Amino acid sequence: MDIYVLIKQVPGTSNVKMDEETGTMIRTDTENVINPLDENALQAAFDLRSGFAGSESSPRVVAVSMGPRPAMGALREALAMGADAAVLLCDKAFAGSDTIATAEALAAGIRHQAGITPGQPLPDDTLIICGERATDGETGQVGPMIAALLGLPVSTYVRRIETVERGGELSLLVERIVEDGFERVRLALPALVTVVKDINQPGFPTLAGKIAAKNADVPVLGPAELGIDPAIVGLGGSPTRVIKVFRPKFSRDTRLHTYDNSGKAVGALVEFLGERGIGLN
Ligand SMILES: Cc1cc2nc3c(=O)[nH]c(=O)nc-3n(C[C@H](O)[C@H](O)[C@H](O)COP(=O)(O)OP(=O)(O)OC[C@H]3O[C@@H](n4cnc5c(N)ncnc54)[C@H](O)[C@@H]3O)c2cc1C
Fold first, then answer.
1. 268 in a structural domain
2. In this structure, is residue 101 part of a structural domain?
3. Residue 50 belongs to a domain with what CATH number?
4. Cβ atoms within 10 A of the Cβ of 156, count?
5. Which residue intervals of the chain are DSSP H helices?
6. Is any ligand 1 atom within 6 A of the Cβ of residue 242?
7. For a pocket test of ligand 1, which of 99, 141, 226 has the largest count of ligand atoms closer than 8 A to its C-beta?
8. 125 in a structural domain
9. Is the CB of 100 inside a 6 Å radius of any atom of ligand 1?
10. Domain total for the chain?
11. How far is the CA of 138 from the centre of ligand 1 (A)?
């Protein structure tokens, strides 16, 4: 079984700067971290893997990220936490990708790792786990879009995952949060799930994990290696157009009145409200 965990590197600060000219995020000079829900996705994969401990069909957990070179840091962190392998999709052709172009690249990355070409199905024992949303873009679209591109069933807002084996066939039983409670859904594999924070408490990298991660070979792939047309990714492959990005400017009309007694202050306040049609009866 292969479990692909999608890891997005996001700014580790709420002070995100935007390039108002291009409408894109300025990702240099900010400290970057793994998108917090992707750590939950990783932990969910590790928990499933530990259910197969000692078995020949123990899943291989592969961390996949698309992003600029520094995203390698997020992948090494994922390896240090326990991922078995990682792959970075990085090329200038990917720059400016919107959610659909991001999903195209990530779907191609998964196909490449699974050794299949577009149109071929993923092996039955494949699971893809994403965070429900990323803290920067926050659309929650990438996971379901990848599922659509790969023709997979998808379950979102998942807070619990179990594998079920029946007649030698593996499927998933998941619990997903809905407005008034939760739903239990059975999913045939291959499938994609997006997870919420309630699913688990992510672990920490170990020292041995950090050492192994430092020396691990992480392939860096672009459109040529993935066998995709560069025109379907990056700004050119992104139907979304950011017309304008700006910081909202708050302008408040503040007047300060000072009175030497509260009677005058209340009178002035009543007059002020009256001028705005807010009368006292
Ligand atoms: C016109 C346009 C131009 C853009 N240009 C740029 C740009 O130049 N540079 C830039 O960095 N962003 C750019 N973006 C933002 C980019 O589209 C989003 O960051 C990206 O599509 C992911 O969307 P999201 O953050 O909403 O992810 P969500 O859908 O909220 O993420 C859900 C989950 O999907 C997975 N995921 C999402 N993105 C990735 C990823 N890259 N790698 C691995 N897993 C992932 C993670 O598991 C994550 O938890 C642009 C967006 C638009 C609309």
1. no
2. yes
3. 3.40.50.620
4. 20
5. 36-50, 71-81, 99-114, 142-150, 207-215, 223-226, 262-275
6. yes
7. 99
8. yes
9. no
10. 1
11. 8
Q: What would the two tokens of residue 212 be?
A: 């192994």
Beta carbon of 8 within 6 Å of any ligand 1 atom: yes
Q: What is the pLDDT of residues 112-122, one digit of tens each?
A: 999 999 999 99
Q: Is residue 260 part of a domain?
A: no
Contact (Cβ atoms closer than 8 angstroms) between residue 48 and residue 185? no
Query: pTM (2 decimals)?
Result: 0.86
7 Cβ below 6 A of ligand 1 = yes
For the CA of 98, the closest atom of ligand 1 is 17
- From the CB of residue 7, how many other CB atoms can be counted at a distance below 10 Å? 27
- Show the domain range for 42: 2-232
Closest Cα to atom 24 of ligand 1? 137
* Residue 22 beta carbon below 6 angstroms from any ligand 1 atom: no
Give pLDDT tens digits for 88-135. 999 999 999 999 999 999 999 999 999 999 999 999 999 999 999 999
Whether 233 lines ligand 1, by a CB cut-off of 6 Å, is no
Amino acid letter, 216: A
Looking at residue 227, the DSSP 8-state letter turns out to be: T
Name the closest-CA residue to atom 8, ligand 1: 96
